[in-house]
UniProtKB/TrEMBL annotation:
One of its GO terms (molecular function) is biotin--[biotin carboxyl-carrier protein] ligase activity. The keyword Transmembrane does not apply. This is biotin--[biotin carboxyl-carrier protein] ligase. Keywords: Biotin, Ligase. It comes from Streptomyces botrytidirepellens. NCBIfam families: birA_ligase. CDD domains: BPL (cd16442).
């Protein structure tokens, strides 16, 4: 396909882009701003459409792609969330990207790699709070929340996949979705949260720079979540803590209790009605009541 044949290209009578409120990402400017000698990001590629950026990057990791590759899609038609759930959104309505990391090369033991999706959540939430001017929160283990109409709404999710000695982290963020475009009524977007901007270029730059900063410090301290401040930062931004929740566990079964802590392995610690504390390493979390006012 030549540039003149590309939708929105110079030969397209519809103009540079077909939705004036959703311009395409500027791959050249993003690369110039993020890819630099000595930095984490080695390559940034923007594709018009793909099935899943995670699937694509896992394959490239297996073929020896270096750490720091970033793959961004303007549209995903087979995007995946946790438990193989689908993630779909209109073209150019969000940020859908994956990054390839090789923490073992920095001496981080594999026992601490489970912190990477939480690290990506802390980095993304903090960056978007600053760049978009919205209150963001984390729902354990991998959701990002914003307030819409006085309610917490999920607007983002994170998926980490192991690929031999690499980890691929996928991030999906609803940016400009309107109410009638939401996949489910309980979802949200930065636009619906009254963000000060929905320009995806500066938002993506902010998120990737924040991930680079957190990842660099985490690697420098051999993945120690307490020493680098990650454990404390996650707990501070986690809307799950202080709530009564139901953890729906893989393979069936559920545990109900108050979410009281994030432990050193990134697990959610629940205190049952019987006073027993139980760590949960994986599962779907349902918030059963709001956090306590004093928290």
């Amino acid at each position: 396909m030549t540039p003149s044949d590309t939708p929105g290209g110079p030969g397209d009578p519809r103009g540079r882009w077909t939705d004036l409120e959703r311009p395409p990402l500027n791959a050249t400017a993003l690369s110039r701003a993020l890819v630099r000698p000595g930095g984490l990001w080695a390559e940034l590629e923007v594709v018009q459409a793909t099935g899943s950026t995670n699937t694509d990057l896992v394959a490239r990791a297996g073929a020896g792609a270096p750490e720091g590759v970033v793959l961004v899609a303007e549209e995903q038609n087979a995007g995946r969330g946790r438990l193989d759930r689908t993630w779909t959104a209109p073209p150019r309505s969000g940020l859908f990207f994956s990054i390839l990391l090789r923490p073992g090369a920095a001496g981080v033991p594999t026992s601490r790699w489970g912190w990477l999706p939480l690290l990506a959540g802390v980095a993304s939430a903090g960056a978007l709070s600053r760049a978009a001017g919205v209150d963001t929160a984390l729902k354990w283990p991998n959701d990002l929340l914003v307030p819409v109409g006085g309610e917490e709404r999920k607007f983002g999710g994170i998926l980490a996949e192991r690929a031999d000695d690499a980890v691929v982290i996928g991030v999906g963020l609803n940016v400009s979705l309107r109410a009638d475009e939401l996949p489910v009524p309980t979802a949200g977007s930065l636009a619906l949260a009254n963000a000060i901007t929905t320009d995806r270029d500066p938002l993506l730059r902010a998120v990737l720079r924040s991930i680079e900063q957190w990842y660099g410090e985490w690697c420098r301290l051999e993945g120690d979540p307490a020493a680098c401040g990650l454990q404390e930062a996650y707990a501070a931004g986690c809307a799950t803590l202080g709530r009564r929740v139901r953890a729906e566990l893989p393979g069936g079964g559920a545990t109900v209790g108050e979410a009281v802590a994030i432990d050193g392995d990134g697990r959610l610690v629940l205190a049952s009605d019987a006073g027993v504390q139980e760590p949960v390493s994986a599962g779907d979390i349902v918030h059963l009541r709001p956090a306590s006012p004093e928290e």
